[in-house]
Design a protein that fits this description.
Length: about 170
């Protein structure tokens, strides 16, 4: 547990976040371009959160030596992770038939100042309606896998944030 409590100033946690996010994005593109399973609105929002997490982790690499920028990067990463958890919960609702609010369209709701689907259509263009996510391995669906990733990210980030602020409090005593 100490390894996670003291992780934020080190390089490996930031690289791990980038590797996981890029790996999940690559997997999504494999299913899109090779297998022919096209992304729905929720899938695209999942990609947005993962891309944001990778970008914040990239920034974290450069600010990890500075206390407050590092803390802001950790908090931003945690916020993006919670947004990913929310989208994953909606995907699980579609997979298992609970809590589906029916809010799945064929047009993304990106702000006019950031039309990601126009800037990078291969990654962010909605091409299908929402339905159950495909099974990827061991009988688990994409949504199941994302739920596991979310649990891992939330647990690790909570420990890193706790360690980040705990170490400061102990230093002032």
């Amino acid at each position: 547990m100490n390894i996670l409590l003291n992780a934020a100033p080190r390089l490996w946690p930031w690289l791990t976040v980038i590797a996981v996010c890029v790996g999940l994005e690559a997997g999504a593109l494999y299913f899109q371009e090779i297998v022919g399973l096209y992304p729905c609105e929720l899938c695209i929002y999942t990609r947005v959160w993962l891309t944001g997490m990778a970008l914040v982790a990239l920034i974290g690499i450069f600010v990890r030596g500075f206390t407050w920028p590092r803390r802001l990067a950790l908090l931003a990463l945690f916020g993006l992770t919670l947004a990913l958890c929310r989208t994953t919960w909606k995907l699980l609702g579609i997979d298992y038939g609970f809590g589906n609010d029916g809010a799945c369209s064929l047009v993304a709701n990106f702000p006019s100042w950031a039309p990601l689907d126009q800037w990078w259509p291969m990654l962010f263009m909605i091409q299908d309606a929402c339905s159950a996510t495909p099974e990827v391995m061991f009988g688990l669906s994409m949504a199941d896998g994302l739920a596991g990733v979310c649990v891992g990210f939330v647990a690790c980030l909570l420990l890193a944030i706790l360690g980040e602020f705990k170490s400061r409090d102990e230093a002032t005593d």
